[in-house]
Amino acid sequence: MSDSLNAMRRRSVLEPQWFVPALFVVALLPAVIGVAGTASDLLADTRFFGSNPIKAVEHYFGQWTLRFILATLCITPTRQLLGWNWLAKQRRTLGLFAFGYLMLHWLAYALLDVQLDWHDLTIDLAKRPYIMIGMAALLLMVPLAVTSTKGMIRRLGGQRWNRLHQLIYVISVLGVIHFFMAVKKDIGQPALFAAGLAVLFAFRVQRWRARRAA
Ligand code: HEM
């Protein structure tokens, strides 16, 4: 291994001090923009989100949910490839942000789109398979969010906690299928997310095979 790579690895053992504040700023910014933009569109007709702000913000938060799910799945490969072990604890943080964006996506749908009409909500659920798939992903994400505290990790034990949190793979696949079904024709963007997910899965399968062969 070259000296420069060794030096880089030594430097990367510790978490840079700016990392956590920067992560929170970057992760919160889309939420602030989304909520403020929607409020100004609905209250002052500013058209920040265009002529149909409710649909647009629903899509906006849906896409941010998937970005954060993929970012969560990027942590392990990044940590392993660069030796940044300090990154491991940010996996839970990113996962919680994914859950937060999912709740904003769901609120945009339930509160603004369907306006908490439980009759419409149940009809949508029964008649639109992509809503059913989205709801399945949401329900699977709840136990992950609930068990993301240090206390819950201790209570469950590392192995059980890890096994439970493997549900993120199922959730990510359901999220991408939901995206494909929601857009119907223009599949460019969901295909991009699917390709990203395929690369992340391929990395894990390759590591798993290497471990078995060793
Ligand atoms: C992990 C779970 C979920 C993910 C990752 C996700 C993501 C997405 C994405 C990326 C879109 C399309 C955005 C675009 O077209 O640019 C979308 C659309 C949508 N999602 Fe979700 N979603 C999830 C769960 C849900 C849930 C629980 C609901 C409601 C019960 C829901 C309702 C909708 C609706 C109504 C649309 C818009 C469809 C239309 O264009 O009419 N989603 N979602």
Describe the protein in words.
With 214 residues, the protein is mainly α. The protein has one domain. It has helices at residues 3-11, 19-44, 53-82, 90-113, 118-127, 129-146, 150-156, 158-165, 167-183, 188-213. Helix 3 runs antiparallel to helix 4 (90-113). The structure holds protoporphyrin IX containing FE. Protoporphyrin IX containing FE binds at residues 58-59, 62-63, 65-66, 102, 105-106, 109, 131, 134-135, 137-138, 171, 175, 178-179, 182-183. Residues 58-59, 62-63, 65-66, 102, 105-106, 109, 131, 134-135, 137-138, 171, 175, 178-179, 182-183 line the site of protoporphyrin IX containing FE.
Q: How do the helices and strands line up, and which of them pair or pack?
A:
Layout: H1 3-11, H2 19-44, H3 53-82, H4 90-113, H5 118-127, H6 129-146, H7 150-156, H8 158-165, H9 167-183, H10 188-213
Helix pairs in contact: 2-3, 2-4, 3-4, 3-9, 3-10, 4-6, 5-6, 6-9, 7-8, 9-10
Bound molecules: protoporphyrin IX containing FE.
Outline of this structure?
The chain has helices at residues 3-11, 19-44, 53-82, 90-113, 118-127, 129-146, 150-156, 158-165, 167-183, 188-213. It is mainly alpha-helical and 214 residues long.
